[in-house]
Write a structure and sequence with these properties.
This protein is about 30% helix and about 30% strand. By secondary structure, the protein is an alpha+beta fold. Strands 1, 2, 4, 5, 8, 11, 13, 14 and 15 form a 9-stranded mixed β-sheet that branches. It has a 5-stranded mixed β-sheet with strand order 17-18-19-21-20, with helices on one face.
């Protein structure tokens, strides 16, 4: 698919016949058979042209008794994908009551109940995104319909029941059963309804709002590492986003066999137990980034919600952007650098497959998440962090509990920055984004002059709007000067005078713009840039230098001078393939310098694949 031939997006918000104001469900379970039973009460009001009412209900749902409409009978029919009600008299508001039983294969999941050994964890949990709650609960399962929800769940008293919102009552039902009732005090989309039933230990970590985290009873030792930096992530995101966390509670609980990594159900993040970590596994996989991502969704996705997948990047791009900002607060700038480099690589991967724009329902995960975050980062740089943060607060204030689109966000940003952003949103959001930049450095040693010529364009030869391109001029190895230039045209050039060999000029040193910069520079400058510049510049240089050049023969010394672990890993991987004669030297430096034993293991695998691993190092 060429970039100019992508299909125009046909994702549109669902046309609503009724508007659900609230939903209450009384739920019971037959877990051994995978059955959900109960009664749902829907409180709706009529929209225009509503001569009938359609409720989503997959064939997995059985209507046990005829539905009731305002307490009385109503003409109804069961269709393959839903229930149709046909009121015989005029109405404006209504309570619809339906007794149902369902055996869902989506929406609600039953873990361990069919294990005859009894060793499997017995759990029941939900996953409603995008429209999977219609497999077990009759209602209007529409992302663009926000409503108040409440759940009363009756289950075995030996288990813990968690759900959205505030726990308003917990009442015993006989000797062995308990009914838990949870209530949401603000509206949200129905796909965010959630519950978890399982056996957990609860740790309360906050009171206003109520916050608690949950861990399996037999894995309490994993609590500190699994929920590492939980309070720091909470405090950072609340402070950075600047708009209050409006929900009455926030709970986090792991489950087995979760169909995704995690889900930001309002007040109730459910995450896969694969993120339960101990000290040995923490470096390989941990919950910190998931924690930050799902918490950020409580503003971006839960509080303000897009009406269709056309603008889905407003959920995932924002959550990924703030996730990475929180990771920087927890793990530091080097980790942050590495994550942005991975994000850029993932966007390149997406562009090799197809060419959908960011604002498109088929843009795909790497664009919704990584390109969305990179675009917000570029926008923050364009308007400035203070303006960006103020606009975010205004965006949330004006649209809390409502629906938003890209136009909504753009308008608020323009109001705040008092500037026009048409060209930015056109280039980065509305059009397929695959942009390349070339930077050519030419040095005249006799005149001590450096000429930099740069070009940048997208796939159609159009320049991207870059109003604050960061250029850093190093006067020596310790002192530099920052400039910001307007790079709206496709070419830019400037002449610099330098006094000694240390003078280098960095182009977009923190890679604020999602542009694939290609650098052409003399080896004499590359060696300095690889050692003294920003991690982004180091990474770009390391990926492009000629390892056969005399300037790069001393790989051990170069690895010692390069700061970020991820850049050293990149250099070591290249050297392992291109400089096998330096095998022992490279492995020795890898073991000395590596902050992550996996880096050494990666190199070892590279060498073994080339039959270069020496027997004495294999021992």
């Amino acid at each position: 698919m060429s970039a100019q031939q992508y299909k125009v997006d046909d994702a549109v918000p669902r046309e609503l016949i009724v508007d659900q104001d609230s939903l209450h469900a009384d739920l019971f379970f037959e877990p051994e058979d995978g059955i959900v039973e109960g009664t749902v009460h829907l409180y709706v009001h009529k929209m225009e042209r509503a001569d009938s009412i359609w409720l989503d209900a997959k064939p997995s749902i059985t209507v046990v008794n005829p539905p009731r409409f305002n307490g009385g009978e109503v003409t109804w029919s069961r269709e393959e994908q839903g229930i149709v009600l046909r009121p015989s008299s005029e109405w404006e508001k209504s309570e619809i009551e339906i007794d149902f039983s369902s055996r869902p294969f989506k929406g609600v999941y039953f873990n361990g109940w069919d294990d005859p050994s009894g060793r499997a964890r017995r759990q029941i949990f939900t996953q409603g995104q995008g429209i999977d709650h219609r497999h077990w609960l009759p209602h209007v399962d529409a992302q663009n319909d926000k409503l108040m929800t409440s759940l009363s769940i009756t289950f075995d008293s030996d288990f813990q029941v968690l759900a959205n919102g505030e726990l308003v009552s917990k009442a015993s039902k006989g000797a062995e059963m308990t009914t838990w009732t949870y209530v949401m005090h603000h509206p949200h989309s129905s796909y965010l309804m959630a519950f978890v039933i399982g056996k957990y230990d609860e740790t309360v970590v906050g009171e206003s709002p109520f916050r608690a985290v949950y861990m399996y009873e037999d894995l309490d030792d994993a609590y500190p590492t699994t929920y590492y930096a939980n309070d720091q992530v909470w405090t950072y995101l609340n402070d950075r986003i600047g708009y209050p966390f409006v929900w009455s509670a926030y709970r986090q609980a792991p489950v087995a066999n979760f169909p995704h990594g995690a889900m930001e159900n309002t007040c109730m993040t459910i995450f896969s137990e694969v993120f339960i970590a101990d000290s040995a596994s923490f470096a390989d996989r941990n919950y910190v980034y998931v924690n930050a991502h799902e918490l950020a969704h409580h503003w971006f996705g839960d509080l303000v919600t897009v009406p269709s997948s056309h603008d889905f990047w407003l959920h995932e791009g924002f959550a990924t952007y703030y996730q990475m900002e929180a990771e920087r607060a927890v793990f530091g700038h080097e980790h942050y650098t590495y994550e942005w480099m991975k994000a850029l690589d993932l966007v390149r991967t997406a562009n090799e497959v197809d060419a959908f724009p960011l604002q498109h329902s088929k843009a795909g995960s790497h664009r919704f998440y990584q390109l969305g975050a990179l675009t917000l980062r570029a926008l923050e740089h364009e308007v400035g962090t203070a303006v960006f943060d103020s606009a975010i607060v205004r965006y949330l204030e004006q649209n809390a509990f409502g629906l938003v689109t890209t136009s909504t966000f753009k308008n608020v940003m323009e109001e705040t920055c008092e500037c026009e952003l048409d060209d930015f949103f056109t280039a980065y959001v509305e059009k397929p984004h695959e942009s390349t930049g070339y930077v050519d450095y030419q040095i005249d040693e006799s005149t001590k002059e450096l000429v930099i010529r740069a070009k940048q364009w997208n796939k159609w030869g159009e320049p991207l709007p870059i109003h604050r391109l960061h250029v850093r001029i190093w006067k020596d190895e310790f002192e530099y000067e920052d400039r910001f230039i307007n790079f709206e045209k496709d070419t830019w050039s400037e002449l610099f005078r330098f006094e000694d060999r240390w003078t280098v000029v960095e182009f977009d040193p923190y890679h604020h713009y999602p542009i694939d910069w290609k650098i052409k520079l003399p080896d004499s400058m590359a060696i300095n840039m690889a050692m003294m510049c920003s991690p982004y510049t180091q990474a770009r240089v390391v990926s492009q230098i000629d390892l056969e050049s005399e300037y790069f023969r001393d790989l051990a010394g170069l690895m010692m001078d390069i700061g970020p672990q991820c850049t050293r890993d990149s250099l070591m991987s290249r050297a392992a393939k291109e400089r096998p004669e330096n095998f022992e030297e490279i492995m020795f430096m890898a073991m000395i310098l590596s902050e992550d034993i996996n880096s050494v293991g990666h190199l070892a695998r590279l060498f073994r694949s080339q039959n270069l691993m020496k027997s004495r190092l294999m021992e």
